[in-house]
Amino acid sequence: MAKVALQLPSPPKSQFSVLEGNGKVSLIDTNGHSQGELPNVTYSVVHTIPGRVRFRLPRLRCDADYAKRLEVLLTADALVKNVRVKPAAMSVAVTYKSEKVSDAKMRSHLHDLIQAASVVVVLKNSTSLSETEKEASWPGLQLSAVATTLAVLGGPLGLPIPPLIVVLPIAIATLPVLQRAWEGIRVEQKLNIDFLDLMAIAITTFQGQFLTPSLMLGLIEVGENIRDRTARSSAQQTLDLLSSLGQFVWVERNGDKQQIPIQDVQRGDTVIVYPGEQVPVDGSILRGKALLDEQKLTGESMPVLKKKGQPVFASTLVREGRIYILAEWIGNDTRAGQSIKLMQEAPVHDTRMENYATKFAQKAVVPTLLLGGAVFAATRNPSRAASVLTLDFATGIRVSVPTTVLAALTYAARRGILIRSGRALEQLAEVDTIVFDKTGTLTKGEVDVVSVESLNPATSRLRVLELAAAAEQRLTHPVAEAIVRYAQAEQVEILPRSKWDYQLGLGVQALIDGETVYVGSDRFLRSSGIDTEALNGQQKSPNSAIYVASNGQLQGIIKYSDLLRPESREVITALSTVEGVEIHMLTGDNKRTATAVAAELGILPTHTHAEAFPEQKATVVRQLHEQGKTVAFVGDGINDSPALAYADVSVSFANSSEIARETADLVLMQNDLHGLLEAIAIARQAKQLIRQNTGLVAVPNLAAMVIAVFFGLNPLAATVVNNGSTVVAGVNGLRPILKNRQHKALLSAR
Hints:
This protein has 750 residues and is α+β, with helices and mostly antiparallel strands. The protein is 45% helix and 23% strand. It is built from 27 helices and 28 strands. β1 (3-8) and β2 form a beta hairpin. The radius of gyration is 33 Å and the shape is elongated.
């Protein structure tokens, strides 16, 4: 057990010892000081569930050293499974071993670590490294470079270099290959590519042909490093869907209002939610009414007016009004909390690219060994046997395939497309079905005015807009904001209003320019004594509408909608016609709105799924997957995260919710759907390049192997063929990056 001492500077004079075992450490106060002696670091508990707690620490934002020390301490703790520190958000989330410690004791323990991080100083680092750190620090490339240099100096250049000096770096550099070959035999119970490499390296080294094994080792290391860079860890981080909720909530207990931490809310409590706050629980309204923005949870683009007896859900936003809610479901039992469970149950895929080329190379191992043995038995010439073993497909494929993937990922990133793994790239090339969320993905996700029409010959449309904008100014309703925004774009003067009365869910009455103006629903106008008979001839439209009246007369109508993104039609058409992809649309909106938007985009009614909650969206994706389709899902909100987790490829935007970005395999940094078309093109080009590279490696190696078997071939010549084809295939795989650089050079030349 290694020991690391962490000392707190004086004052206070406390020393902590960190005992390490199995890659974890624990913090122990060796001087018996109480936690009160530590400097006080202000923090609050934002959210807690068994086995996980999230803190808000203001100090994280302004003290980078403290953030780093805290992360080191938490990561090193024996009871901690996972740590996520976000200084910009002043947030730290800790997942711990709840089976080994009670929640109360762990909270107290974490308190000590939070305080200790402010003054802790590392006196001695641990002597043991994790497996990942060991792999990262292994100087394989350097050793093979040294061996190659010595082989060239002692071979073609003829310098008197003792063979032992050349053999030593070759032997050390071969250790990872030996380890992988042994694991293949012991764990997988088969001879793998590494065993083939090991045999070729051993034979050529024993024959004194040091340049051959040195070059092989260098190329193997390059391939392994590149392949590891293209792989994403398969360990899913726990994502907290409720992290955006306030840390304190108002409740009414025994007739008194009190503010309590969100984790202390209990079922049966009366929770009070004010304008601008998010609902912290699932429940029903006891009294009051409010305009609720449910887009984050359901995808519904328009706020919904809810009154006594109606249900409300956690993570929805109260735009206007105040409501008293009976808490029926709290924490992870809420509808939003169930989305956490859905994502945690989603399958975790292997993130290292599983390509047909590597599998083919693995299958060729035993035949190559048998062929090499047969050649040796027939000729008694170890050089010819070594040539056969050297002419394998493994090295070329293990270098060229990851190089192609890395080049594609790099090129995509330069184009504003973040593809997180080689597996995502591979799946994207195979996608034949794409499911789009509607709100915020195919649409802008916010209300916009579509048209302003006058219903009175004596009133112009600009006057209708002028009156509406004046009445709606400074109201927080999204329709009011859209009208004011549209009026400003039309350069309409927004007149002052003297008296006004806003009725939640109905409309606003205001005195403007000497006129009594009414702006709101047709029901609001009728209740105010306005004759709305002129509306009877209006055709039904998929767009919503608000009406304007003044001095007792109906003046006009303003239609509004969640408008499509400018590129949506073009992208959908290109995907369905050019790429041959089947398009589906999912939305939490009602069926009428969903059907209208689908028709405008050319999406079939049978492929349109309306009124879908998160679990229903995930079900649709699973059903398509079970039909044998390779499914991509494009979404941007909490309500989309389960579907994103279940899709073969998940796509989101840079301005999406944090949960959607973290769940997605592919993030469009430009917030433009054209990036999806480009990503598919990049993935398919990478797949084509991989096939080309397989041919570039296989053809010359097969030809050289025929020569080696029937006529004999020098091992160095075999290495040149093998490594030469590898280099050509590797350069071919870099074409996306090289093409991008040439394009930039041409632009700069102009």
